[in-house]
Amino acid sequence: MTPPQRQRRHPKEQPPPPPPAPTGKQKNPERLFVVAGPDGGERDTDLDLVTLIVARADPPPSATPEQSALLRLCTAPLSVAELSAYLNLPFSMMTVVLTDMLTAGLVTARAPIVRQAVADRSILEAVMHGLQRL
Amino acid sequence: MVPGPRTEDQLPHTAEAAVKIVIVGGFGVGKTTMVRSVSEIKPLTTEETMTQAGIGVDDNFGSDTKTATTVAMDFGRISITEQLVLYLFGTPGQQRFWFLWNGLFEGALGAVVLVDTRRLEVSFDVIGRLEECGVPFVVAVNTFPDAPRYAISELRTALDLPEEIPIIECDARRRASSRDVLMTLMHFLHALATAKAPA
């Protein structure tokens, strides 16, 4: 039996235009407004799924329930993805909440190591050694 | 009280940075199985909401029947050193979901395309997208017992992949086998980096 046949593709010259922000039309705007704060609409953020978040302070009296829960979770470093999972918040909402908290100095962010045109071989070798121990 | 990580699932305070690898493939191909078999934590799920505008159906904004699609992505974690953490994300093959998670593929070290030979054509589009985006990847064939077996050379021809891209068979349920897939990706990435590095 012969398997079906694919046609190879090649890198595109121009990256596709950025897609529309997924936060525009949410199902439950009242609830999301409360989580994000009054100006939680359009905001750029560099937070990645694997940015590590660490609490800097105990929850202040002004903290929202989400902020307090988040601060309790990340007394040790925790990725944005894990926070999204534990707090049951969509990733886009999580980044809005965290951007506020970063601005307020409640948490710090440890940036991920992302793919470069030429990868850092020492990082790749560290990952290989780590996998070998599995 | 929000449930959080168990004490033994907490990262050390020394954790400085994370890297990620994406496992991509069609529904039911074994992405979450592979994540689970190597992850040190029970796989978690992050969700994102996709509105109708995003999935290209009629815009009935303002109507009571407006619905949103929730797209879920399972992930796991492997501590590499006291400083470095690896995250594995299993994501649906359709590219329209990818932008939901900022930089999911752009920042990843690389990707594993998990395929099922009973539905090989499901992987065609995702492989093409990775080629277009310049994301380095390897292909792992999850060997289901009732799936047709092809020689690797036959699969390479069918998938129209150049000789240097690794294609390997695996059993996503087994930790050692899934680990070998990740190792194959890492060796491939290392070879790419070595080839590109200035002499």
Describe this structure in words.
The complex is a heterodimer of chains A (134) and B (199). By secondary structure, chain A is mainly alpha-helical. In chain A, 37% of the residues lie in helices and 7% in strands. Chain A contains 5 helices and 3 strands. Chain A has helices spanning 29-36, 65-73, 80-87, 91-103, 121-132, and strands at residues 52-55, 78-79, 107-110. In chain A, strands 2-1-3 form a 3-stranded antiparallel sheet. Mean pLDDT of chain A is 82; it is low at 23-44. Chain B has one domain: P-loop containing nucleotide triphosphate hydrolases (Rossmann fold). Helix content of chain B is 26%, strand content 26%. Chain B is built from 5 helices and 7 strands, in the order βαβαβββαβαβα. Chain B has helices at 31-38, 52-55, 124-133, 152-159, 175-196; strands at 17-25, 44-50, 69-79, 84-92, 110-115, 137-142, 167-170. Classes of the chains: A mainly alpha (134), B alpha/beta (199). Chains A and B meet through helix 2, strand 2, helix 3, helix 4 and helix 5 of A and strand 1, strand 2, helix 2, strand 3 and strand 4 of B.
Poorly predicted ranges of chain A: 23-44
CATH class of chain B: Alpha Beta
Mean residue pLDDT of chain A: 82
Q: What strand order characterises the main sheet of chain B?
A: 2-3-4-1-5-6-7
Largest sheet of chain A: 3 strands, antiparallel
- What percent of residues of chain B are in strands? 25-35%
How widely separated are the two ends of chain B? 56 Å
- Which oligomerization state do the chains in this entry correspond to? heterodimer
Largest interchain contact: A-B, 68 and 90 residues
Tell me the count of domains of chain B: 1
Could you tell me the radius of gyration of chain B in angstroms? 18 Å
Structural class of chain B: alpha/beta
Q: What is the total tally of β strands of chain A?
A: 3
Label the overall shape of chain B.
globular
Tell me the span between the first and last alpha carbons of chain A: 37 Å
Assign a percent range to the helix content of chain A.
25-40%
Mean pLDDT of chain B: 88
If helices are DSSP runs of H or I spanning 4 or more residues, what is the number of helices of chain A? Answer: 5
> What Rg of chain A is obtained from the alpha carbons, in whole angstroms?
19 Å
